[in-house]
TrEMBL record, chain A:
GO terms for biological process: coenzyme A biosynthetic process. SUPFAM superfamilies: Actin-like ATPase domain, AF1104-like. This is 4'-phosphopantetheine phosphatase. It is found in: Cytoplasm. It catalyses: (R)-4'-phosphopantetheine sulfonate + H2O = (R)-pantetheine sulfonate + phosphate; (R)-4'-phosphopantetheine + H2O = (R)-pantetheine + phosphate; (R)-4'-phospho-S-sulfopantetheine + H2O = (R)-S-sulfopantetheine + phosphate. Its main location: cytoplasm. Phosphatase which shows a preference for 4'-phosphopantetheine and its oxidatively damaged forms (sulfonate or S-sulfonate), providing strong indirect evidence that the phosphatase activity pre-empts damage in the coenzyme A (CoA) pathway. Hydrolyzing excess 4'-phosphopantetheine could constitute a directed overflow mechanism to prevent its oxidation to the S-sulfonate, sulfonate, or other forms. Hydrolyzing 4'-phosphopantetheine sulfonate or S-sulfonate would forestall their conversion to inactive forms of CoA and acyl carrier protein. Keywords: Acetylation, ATP-binding, Coenzyme A biosynthesis, Cytoplasm, Hydrolase, Manganese, Metal-binding, Nickel, Nitration, Nucleotide-binding, Phosphoprotein. Its cofactor is Ni(2+); Mn(2+). Belongs to the type II pantothenate kinase family. GO terms for molecular function: ATP binding; hydrolase activity; metal ion binding; pantothenate kinase activity. It holds the Pfam family ARMT1-like_dom. One of its GO terms (cellular component) is nucleus.
UniProtKB/TrEMBL annotation, chain B:
Keywords: ATP-binding, Coenzyme A biosynthesis, Cytoplasm, Kinase, Nucleotide-binding, Phosphoprotein, Transferase. Belongs to the type II pantothenate kinase family. Homodimer. It comes from Haplochromis burtoni (Burton's mouthbrooder). This is pantothenate kinase. The keyword Nucleotide-binding applies. One of its GO terms (cellular component) is nucleus.
């Protein structure tokens, strides 16, 4: 059974009814809200609505040629435009606030199209009348299990690091799973008052294959009888302090030790409550609660394993109020699953498990909008993140009463899919270092991002000189991001594994939240203008070199160009103080060969062979990087007869070149360079957006169109450039074709870590193992 | 049985199974003692035989299950009666004291013992009663005992039986049967805890799984919830209670059947689920709680058994163990659960000598060492 509705009415009486956050920070964007859904459980209410958010975006537009003189030297103009995007809001709060919340929503709801509210959960009928009266919406009940499964599919597909394995004694309690694009089939074990075991085979096909009456209600009901403790949370507290061995009969109580013949260890429970079969002994509440917890967790784990085995399923997710973020039950269930499957099956939990019902109910109501057609992304700025409820982990989180938890998801403009060239999509992990597990690295990067905050705020204000309130907004941004960093210091697992990428993305989300869509737009514009002036000269000097000298110069050019990066602190300091910091100067800064990672010789050897069919190039920064580094390199590939797909960000991130900017830049270069011009004209040079707005790169979430182009063109070389895309992420990414990763390490801490120094070079050319490159002239298999 | 005759062990013949809660003892009383034998018989041996066969209760807690006695049994070429005796494991010291008082060790017999206690109390037997135990694996003994008792021709009622019409309480009756061609067989032994074995032949079996929710859990929880102290008391209360006041049923949540998933309204959705509410906690009786505990434990054993049967592809399930002693309620529940949830595919069988098979197996080991 799913969560039960009739719950001890005493649970809410002692609760503080004041809301600790102003409601307008919780129920955000209500004015445009439509399509409501609500899931009322035993103690928590989860509300969902769809809303649209209007925010500013930076657009670039090429000056036409006639107006060019009037616009001075500028290549393109930047304008701020308003754009409307879709956002899903999910809010979780204690049932005690339901009336206050409904009142607030009523007062702020402008949209009058909305007529119904989808409802699910055991408590839905209890509050039906109240909801209908307060909101004037008709309550439309949806099947609980259907909602649960729909919600589960949605989060598994759309939220990276949604699922995790719980390891109580590990350095980090939560070990997040990489998002596997193929989520089916799986088993969902929902532990509400009873247990439902559901096999999910596809979006629309699922079946309740079994269940058990021994569930959360048994723990709560039997626990209340045994210990006279009324609240579920308190029972768990008691259990975490108890010793079950005083109540349970263990194998060693029967055997005196282990039952060696069967390999049953002495500490194994032979009979739950086996020692309490006596009238003349008292047992402590803690011990009884602990024994009960073990009994129920083991039993559920055992049944889950039997069902998983029968149906040959290895992915088993656990949810329901018994689990809901409680470390105690996650631990005992994990233990049980490990015991019964000898480690063959892992117990998986979900970050947004509490929201599944409401997400599902919402999706049922939004079917005509086809939400499953889009990709969605967790908005780190608006989402609370996973909180540890473990009291010893984080004392300040213990007082949950009066707090609201939020999840916000943005509809992405593009549908995201895997790069078809990943060697094994299911084991692909974009991030090189997991800061959740590496405490030292975490400390450094959190410090680093906090240090950089002043600079980001300053640039954000500078990017909007015509807006007097920009300073105030920038200040709000500072507070929000600083608060996020503080939260992450306490709870590094809040949004899944903490990584440099997630820190960068969170910053972008916060900047967008306060309408700073592109703080670097003006800087990028200026640098693009300057770099373009040198393009012809750069190309000319390259063409004067011998073939071999030229290949090396091209690589050095890409690397030197990559030194120009505002995202890296060491460089932004130099750029700030000396805007004339030259390309030649950058080349001088570069490490001499042999580089820190150096497979240049193999690359050169490969170039002597036949050309690649098609190269996919993930580009990095604007200005010198793209214009003087990447473009000459691309030009050479084209000349060799290789088609080139330039993948750039869909939206702005730091000074990375966006697809919009790159379109204009390429046109301009084409006007000066017949090779580029021919490439564009003959459709051998393509500019495709990546679907990302991050300084890093997740190859499992790329624009569907890009994936299609990659497949159609039979891409056989992937080039990834820059620290964010080739070192912080994808350093270890295994591709099914040749790949080239090029970056300059512009951070001395990271350089140290990798055994190099500032401006060390990573040049990593790889041919997939077991797949000797048959095009390569160096050796031809007979 | 010539081999048996050739190395017939000296009397007395005992088999012992020392479990977590109960010690089970089987004793073979020879009835074909010749006058010559009688003369040679030492006094200690006579005294033990007389003590065991002339009483039905020993000390405060020892009991002979007279109704289970097998008469006119031929064992190892000797004719006699097989007696079934049990006492709580915590009274083992008193038993050892008695063995010492009766100079048991002077008889130079081998005491074959199985169960965890054979290991745990081995040194106590040596120190307190000067007895060496011949320790045997409990699952080996269990299977041997089951197969033996089912095979012996006895004048009494059939060893094996099942319930006809398990779905209909008014017409649910016990019917005798035999364990002919029993393999593969799922053997579920419900003692303090539960072991589930898949048996493919007398010597080929594996332990599939087990659960800690067994007879010990039923009694342990009943003691805590009702203040009772014996299995009989707990069962008596359970027979008078009503579990639906304690459990939350499907119909309590959905108002009837949960048709979407084929769950009948009467099915238990949450064991003890009604006890989440303070009012309901105050309105239930001890009898209701005892009944709910029995139903919870029994149904859970039923589900795990059914899943094992499916996973192992076995259709015959044999339930044994002392949890089923005088516990028709649980047996009928198990019979019904097997039948209902498997849509008639699974058949639940039971044996009269519920908890004594391990001890019988130990005795057989004495007579026919394997």
């Amino acid at each position: 059974m799913a969560e039960c509705g009739r719950v001890d009415s005493n649970t809410s009486h002692t609760m503080d009814k004041s809301i600790t956050l102003p409601p307008d920070e919780i129920f955000r964007n209500l004015e445009n809200a439509k399509r409501f859904a609500i899931d009322i459980g035993g103690s928590l209410t989860k509300l969902a609505y769809y809303s649209t958010v209007q925010h500013k975006v930076a657009k670039v537009r090429s000056f036409d040629h006639t107006a060019k003189a009037a616009a001075g030297d500028k290549l393109y103009e930047i304008s701020m435009q308003e754009e409307v995007t879709a956002r899903l809001h999910f809010i979780k709060f204690e049932n005690a606030y339901i009336e206050t919340c409904l009142d607030f929503i009523k007062d702020h709801l402008v949209n009058t199209e909305t007529k119904v509210i989808k409802a699910t959960g055991g408590g839905a009928h209890k509050f039906k009348e109240l909801i209908e009266r307060k909101l004037g919406l008709k309550v439309d009940k949806e099947d609980e299990m259907t909602c649960l499964i729909k919600g589960c599919n949605f989060v598994l597909k759309n939220i990276p690091h949604e699922a995790f394995v719980y390891a109580k004694h590990a350095d980090s309690e939560f070990r997040f799973q990489t998002t596997n694009p193929d989520i089916f089939p799986y088993l969902l074990v929902n532990i509400g008052s009873g247990v439902s075991i559901v096999k999910v085979e596809s979006e629309d096909k699922f079946e309740r294959i079994g269940g058990s009456s021994i569930g959360g209600g048994t723990f709560w009901g039997l626990g209340a009888l045994l210990t006279k403790t009324k609240r579920f949370d308190e029972l768990l507290q008691l259990a975490s302090k108890g010793q079950h061995a005083s109540v349970d009969m263990l194998v060693k109580d029967i055997y005196g030790g282990s039952y060696g013949y069967l390999g049953l260890t002495g500490d194994l429970i032979a009979s739950s409550f086996g020692k309490s079969a006596t009238a003349d002994k008292d047992f402590s509440k803690e011990d009884m609660a602990k024994s009960l917890l073990h009994m129920i967790s083991n039993d559920i784990g055992q049944l889950a394993c039997l069902y998983a085995k029968l149906h040959n399923l290895s992915r088993v997710y656990f949810g329901g109020f018994f689990i809901r973020g409680h470390p105690v039950t996650m631990h005992t269930i994990t233990y049980s699953i490990n015991f019964f499957t000898k480690g063959e099956v892992q117990a998986l939990f979900l970050r947004h498990e509490g929201y599944l019902g409401t997400i599902g109910a919402f999706l049922k109501g939004a079917e005509e909008d086809n939400p499953n057609q889009y990709s969605w992304g967790e908005n780190y700025a608006g989402s609370s993140g996973l909180m540890s409820v473990s009291p010893d982990m984080n004392p300040m989180q213990r007082a949950r009463s009066g707090t609201f938890d939020m999840l916000e998801m943005d509809r992405l403009e593009r549908q995201l899919v895997n790069l078809p060239l990943l060697q094994d999509p299911s084991s692909y992990i974009p991030d090189t270092v997991d800061l959740t597990e590496d405490a030292l690295a975490r400390e450094y990067w959190l410090y680093c991002f906090e240090e950089a905050l002043d600079g980001v705020v300053k640039r954000a204000v500078a990017s909007q000189p015509d807006m007097p309130e920009a300073a105030l907004r920038a200040e709000k941004f500072r507070q929000k991001y600083r608060h996020k960093l503080q939260t992450l210091r306490q709870q590094p697992f809040a949004y899944g594994s903490l990584t440099v990428r997630s820190l960068l993305d969170t910053r972008e989300h916060c900047l967008n939240e306060f309408n700073f869509p592109d703080p670097y737009s003006k800087i990028k514009q200026r640098e693009n203008d300057i770099a373009l002036k040198y393009y012809q000269k750069a190309v000319k000097s390259l063409d004067e070199l011998s073939w071999e000298e030229k290949q090396f110069a091209l690589v050095r050019g890409v690397l030197a160009g990559n030194v120009f990066d505002w995202g890296a602190k060491a460089v932004s300091d130099v750029l700030e103080s000396d805007p004339e910091f030259g390309f030649e100067e950058a080349k001088r800064q570069l490490e001499e060969r042999p580089w820190l990672v150096d497979s240049y010789d193999q690359w050169l050897e490969r170039l002597k062979g036949p050309p690649h069919k098609c190269a996919l190039f993930f580009v990095d920064n604007s200005g010198v990087d793209i214009i003087l580094g990447v473009m000459p390199f691309v030009r050479e590939l084209l000349s060799r007869g290789t088609e080139v797909v330039l993948a750039s960000n869909s939206g702005p991130a730091l000074n990375d070149v966006t697809n919009g900017e790159l379109q204009i830049l390429t046109e301009r270069i084409a006007a000066m360079d017949p090779v580029i011009e021919a490439g564009l004209r003959e459709d051998r040079l393509l500019l495709v957006q990546s679907g990302s707005s991050s300084p890093c790169l997740d190859l499992s979430r790329l624009d569907k169109v890009l994936a299609m182009v990659v497949r159609e063109r039979q891409t056989d070389l992937v080039i990834i450039e820059g620290m964010g895309r080739a070192i912080h992420t994808n350093y270890y990414a295994m591709l099914s074709c040749e790949s080239l990763k090029m970056a300059v390490i512009k951070n001395s801490w990271l350089a140290d870590r990798l055994g190099g120094k500032l401006f060390s070079v990573v040049f990593k050319y790889e041919v997939p193992a077991g797949k000797p490159n048959k095009d390569c002239g160096a050796f031809s298999p007979s | 049985d010539n081999i048996g005759l050739a190395r017939k062990p000296p009397f007395p013949w005992f088999g012992m199974d020392i479990g977590g809660t109960l010690v089970k003892l089987v004793y073979f009383e020879p009835k074909d003692i010749t006058a010559e034998e009688e003369q040679e018989e030492v006094e200690n041996l006579k005294s033990i035989r007389r003590y065991l066969t002339s009483n039905t209760a020993y000390g405060k807690t020892g009991i002979r299950d007279v109704h289970l006695e097998l008469q006119d049994l031929t064992l190892c070429g000797r004719k006699g009666n097989l007696h079934f005796i049990r006492f709580p494991t915590h009274d083992l010291p008193a038993f050892l004291q008695m063995g010492r008082d009766k100079h048991f060790s002077s008889l130079h017999t081998t005491l074959c013992a199985t169960g965890g206690g054979a290991y745990k109390f081995e040194s106590d037997f040596r120190m307190m009663a000067d007895l060496e135990l011949h320790k045997l694996d409990e699952l080996d003994c269990l299977i041997r005992g089951v197969l033996y008792l089912d095979s012996v021709m006895s004048s009494g009622p059939s060893e094996c039986y099942y319930f006809e019409n398990p779905a209909d309480p008014d017409h649910c009756v016990q019917k005798p049967c035999t364990l002919e061609n029993p393999y593969p067989l799922l053997l579920v032994n419900i003692g303090s805890g539960v072991s589930i074995l898949a048996v493919y032949s007398e010597n080929n079996y594996k332990r599939v799984t087990g659960t800690s929710l067994g007879g010990g859990t039923f009694l342990g929880l009943c003691c805590l919830l009702t203040g009772c102290s014996t299995f009989e008391e707990a069962l008596e209360m359970a027979s008078q209670g009503e579990s639906t006041r304690v459990d939350k049923l499907v119909r309590d949540i959905y108002g009837g059947d949960y048709e979407r998933f084929g769950l009948p309204g009467w099915a238990v959705a949450s064991s003890f689920g009604n006890m989440m509410s303070k009012d309901k906690r105050e309105s239930v009786s001890k009898e209701d709680l005892a009944r709910a505990t029995l139903v919870t434990i029994t149904n859970n054993i039923g589900s795990i058994t059914r899943m094992c049967a499916l996973n192992e592809n076995i259709e015959t399930v044999l339930f044994v163990g002392n949890f089923l002693r005088v516990n028709t309620l649980s047996m009928k529940l198990l019979a019904y659960a097997m039948d209902y949830w498997s849509k008639g595919q699974l058949k639940a069988l039971f044996l009269r000598h519920e908890g004594y098979f391990g001890a019988v197996g130990a005795l057989l080991e004495l007579l026919h060492p394997s």
